[in-house]
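Protein modeling request. Please complete all fields; requests missing the sequence field cannot be processed.
Requester role: graduate student
Desired output: 3D structure, token encoding
Chains: 1
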Amino acid sequence: MVRNTQPERASKAPQDKASHPSADERAAKGKKLREMVPRASQAEWKPYKGRRDPVEVTLASDQGRMGNLVPIRHGRMSASPFAFYRGSAALMAADLARTPTSGIKVQACGDAHLMNFGGFATPERNVIFDINDFDETLPAPFEWDLKRLAVSAVIAAQHLTLPSSDAARVAKGVAREYRESMRTYATMRARDVWYDRIDLQRYEDRGGDPKRVASVRAASARLIKEAKRRTAPEHQLPKLVSRDGARLTIKDAPPLIYHPTAEITPGMKFGYAETIAAYREALPAHVQILFDRFQFRDLAIKVVGVGSVGTQCYVGLFMAADNDPLFLQIKEARRSVLEPYAGKSVHPNQGQRVVEGQRLMQSASDVFLGWARGKNKRDFYLRQLMDMKVSATLEEMDAKMLHQYSRMCGHALALAHARSGDAAMIAGYLGSGPAFDDAISEFAFEYASQNAADYRSFIKAIRAGRVAAQIDS
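Delivered output (473 residues):
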């Protein structure tokens, strides 16, 4: 069992050398942790006695979700072992709590698989690469995020039917990139770490041939151009909104986009004024001025992702002028899957937990990021629905692209952990050689096999009628 810890307020005691150990001293402490938790032990995985049935865990995580959408969630999870992995963060959280950890904590993502990274626009309108999903964020051991990421890389390679040698290269590449990036962050000044960002278009494949680098950059440029086009009002408005004179409404496209009943979303009669006001108060004062230019027009349920399906997720339409829309994604924030093993959040609102964790981990966050509690007593966090978002498509990758993309994810994860944790101590534990990389790769293969077995159990349960599944288009 791992206790939750949040950063304490700085002591007002006089500061001296003893209160600021050097990076070398902190690295030495990290290295000493190997005596208690050898790096080779990070490879360990085998099903433990009393491990819960994966189908039971999945059904338990359905509690509190919208019943009509749960079969869609199951249908999406049934698509492949990789899709099942995306929807089974709760299952892996329980398993990770049984694995060895160094004891070094960070603000963890909680669901750091490959598809929860991507490109998006900063407030300065630059496109950077970073983690983009924080629904499960909570302080926890750094290894938990890294192991979940490495496992997802192996499952992705298997999904693409790549040879085991390529899958091993990808898994080791994730761990190596994380380790080497963390070693760099350990030597940097605190503010330099905080200011660091991963430029999507300029990210180079070290050791790759110039043609490959040029190809990756060209592909990034095309993705960014397309993301800008999708974000433009002239694209969003006709695609998502219908007009009836002066009245604007979000277009229904059931079962994935539809308007809720007043029972599901109390407050509809008054335009959700109380919830919107609470969200506004969670924004910084200068963003409140910007938000005040927009007026609420409509709200609809919008089914997104895999793990989030069935939770209350909406899109809200706000307008500053006839051609000036603001689409806000409003996502229900439930308790983190890490909570039973890492402890409760210090934040009373689960939406605030997500937002504060995101702000701590991301090198730049959406200016409209905020939280509120609805009249239905559920917690939510809000952000822009589309803001030049660039997402990876797994099926379009070959071995080299998967290796490159996975390494970018490893780098982004290291940056997120360095912002909240002790980079020097983590780097000291990881070391400069491949011992840790090899251990993480071995764990990734072992747990990928566990995921495949769990997926088979899930499919059998669907076929037996134990689990209801609906395949959506």
